[in-house]
Amino acid sequence: MASNMKNIFTIVLLASTLIAKSQTSIYHPFPDSNAIWNVHHAYGEGLYDCYSYFINGDTMINSLPYHKIYVSGYEQGFYWCFGGTLTLNRYCGAFRQDKNFRKVYMVQPDSSTEVIYFDFSVSKSDSVVVLYGYPTSVFDVDSIVIDGNYRKELIIPSLDFPEEIIEGIGSSIGGFFPHSIQVENDWWLECFDQDGEMLYGFGPCTIYNGINEQKPDQPVSLYPNPVNDKLNLLIKESGKMNLSIYDLTSRCILKKEVSNSAQINTSQLSNGIYIYKLQNEKGILSTGKIIKE
After folding, report:
1. Cα gap 37→191, rounded to integer Å
2. Cβ distance 120 to 167 under 8 Å?
3. How far apart are CA 126 and CA 119, in angstroms?
């Protein structure tokens, strides 16, 4: 009986692996319209930049069709960028993609020459070039489930923690603009929305444009943040609540029941950026970012 169960388990595992590999053989292209990448940047003494990259219109460059990328957002704000300087509709460049060869090409605003921006035809240990022409190599090739489908995921080494380049979405750090050369500052893709459906991260995933935006009344204080081993919580609400901590692939890695004050052991977490969600029986009370150092 034990031998039969072991054989069944092996068959199921092999079948799952084959299904994942077969699904990643299907290329998932980047959208050509109706897409938003919200990217956050934390630096200095509690300063934030919050950017919304979005597709807005098409253009012809060297007789080839491209899709134009713009950015709006806040710079040098505090806590989720409130109080920052608002920038609207800055042109960032234009891209096209070769779906047969799984390559995405980009033309920067001050250039008419395209460069390979994303290349999903590569394999483990292959050389790639990321933003600003920084050469590196693919550390590993994996897959990630997005909206019920497996997509190819390239793992790129970074100075802080690995960057995932996801088919049809882009970088886990910079969205459409990878940031593998980051040194001391923290970038992360807050969310990705396509055709009004959020496929990655946490929402709401709307364009930062200065309309109907106000600082939320946060019912929880977390400190220290960045955190090392112990994360303290002070919560305005009374009663029992659940605290969940997610990695940037939306995988829940820690869940704990808490009350007005609590201390969370974070020593088991790897260094990087995480998203927390605090909720009670009424719904979600607060969400935000935690940096583990």
Report:
1. 6
2. yes
3. 11
Tokens of 226: 């960045």
β-bridge pairing 47-61 and 103-107: unpaired
pTM over 0.90: no
What average pLDDT values come out for the chain (293 residues) when binned by 10 residues?
47 44 73 91 74 92 95 76 77 94 92 90 78 68 88 79 85 75 65 89 76 53 81 79 79 84 87 80 70 82
pLDDT attached to residue 214: 44
Reference 82, options 212, 222, 191; nearest CA is 212
Q: How many CB atoms lie within 10 A of CB 121?
A: 12
Distance CA 149, CA 210 (A): 35
Beta bridge partners of 35: 194
226 vs 275: CA distance, rounded Å: 12
Q: With DSSP H G I counted as helix, E B as strand and the rest as coil, what are the percentages for the chain, rounded to 5?
A: 10, 55, 40
User: Residue 231 is inside which H or E element, if any?
Assistant: strand 230-235
Give 55's Cβ-side CA count (13 Å radius).
21
> How remote is the C-alpha of 30 from its chain's centroid?
15
Q: What residues have CB less than 8 Å from 152, skipping those under 6 apart?
A: 24, 27, 28, 120, 141, 143, 166, 167
Would you state the torsion angle of the CA atoms of residues 79, 80, 85, 90, taken in this order, to the nearest 10 degrees? 160
What does the pLDDT read at residue 188? 81
CATH class of this structure's domain 220-292: mainly beta
- Name the token pair of 108: 């920067």
Q: For the purposes of burial, counting CB atoms within 10 Å of the CB of 7, is it exposed (0-12), middle (13-18) or buried (19 or more)?
A: exposed
Q: Are 185 and 39 spatial neighbours (Cβ–Cβ below 8 Å)?
A: no
